[in-house]
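Figure caption, in words: inputs first, then the predicted bound structure.
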Amino acid sequence: MNASPLTQSIRLNNGVPMPVLGLGVWKTKSGKECKDALHWAFEAGIRHVDTARIYGNEEDVGTAVRESAIPRKDLFITTKLWNGDQKEARKHLELSLRNLGMDYVDLYLIHFPIASTRKQAWKELEKAYKDGLAKSIGVSNYTVPHLEEILSHAEIVPAINQVEFHPFLNQTELSRKCSEHGIVLEAYSPLAHGKRISDPKLVRLAEKYRKTPAQILIRWAIDKGFVVIPKSVRKERIRENSEVFDFALTSEDLAEMETWNENFRTCWDPTGA
Ligand SMILES: NC(=O)c1ccc[n+]([C@@H]2O[C@H](COP(=O)([O-])OP(=O)(O)OC[C@H]3O[C@@H](n4cnc5c(N)ncnc54)[C@H](OP(=O)(O)O)[C@@H]3O)[C@@H](O)[C@H]2O)c1
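Bound structure (NAP present):
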C-alpha cells in the first residue's frame, strides 16, 4: 500500500475535510473490476470513493475497503439515495450501509432532484446526519432553482452539490451560487465521460505542461476549488489521474479554458426537474 496518501482536502461547511480527488465508480462492474479499481486507487494514494445505490457496487466498495486494511477514519466514502427511494430515505441509507458493511458514510447525497419527493428526502437526510449515519449530507444534479428551493426550507445547508462540470460544461452561475452559500461544488464526469480527451485545444495545453489531457481536466477542477471524481477501471489511468498535485495551471490558461464552454452535457440534464 502506498505510504503517502494524497491528502489535499477542502473543508466542508460543517468543518469536515473532504479529499479533493476521489475515484468515481459509475459503470464500474460489480466484482473484480470494482475491487481492482479501488485497490489501484488506494495504491495511488486516493482515499475517497464515489459510489451510489444505483451503481450496483456498494458491496464491492465495502469489500475493497476492508481488504485494504486502511483505517476507516482515513477514507472518505460517498453514496447516494436513488430516485425511487426518496420517500424512504432513512431505510435506504441503512440498506446502503449494510451493503457497504459500514456504520456511517462520509457523505450521503440526494442523487437527483425529484420534484415530488426531494423536500421530504432532505428532512430525512438531516435526521440521519444528526444521528451520525452520514458525516455530511448534500445534493446532486441541483440547478440554481433547486438550490434556491432547498435553501428556503433546509435546516442544514447542503455541504456538497455534485454536478456535471468540465471546461466544456462550465456552469458559472451555478458555481457562483454554490460558493455564495458555502456549498462545495463536486465535479462529476470531469473528463466529459472521455468524449473530449482528444480535443485539439486540450491536447495543445497538455503538451505545454507535459501532462495528459485527463490530468489537465482534473487539475482545472482542482484549481477552480472543486472536488473532482474521475472514473477509470484501468490501473495505469487511475495512477495517471492521481498525478495532478505536482503542477498548477497558470491564471492565463485558466482564463483561456473559461472560453471553452459549449454547454456540452454527457449525462442527464436536470433543468426543469
Ligand atoms: N451524481 C450523478 O448523477 C453522477 C453522474 C455521472 C457521474 N457521476 C460520478 O462521477 C464519476 C465520474 O464521471 P463519469 O464516470 O461519468 O466520467 P469521467 O470520469 O468523466 O470519464 C470516465 C471515462 O473516461 C475514461 N478515462 C478515465 N481516465 C482516462 C484517462 N486518463 N485518459 C483517457 N480516458 C480516461 C474511462 O474509461 P476507463 O474506465 O476504461 O479508463 C471512462 O470511459 C462517476 O464514476 C460517478 O462516480 C455522478
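The domain at 9-258 is CATH 3.20.20.100 (TIM Barrel).
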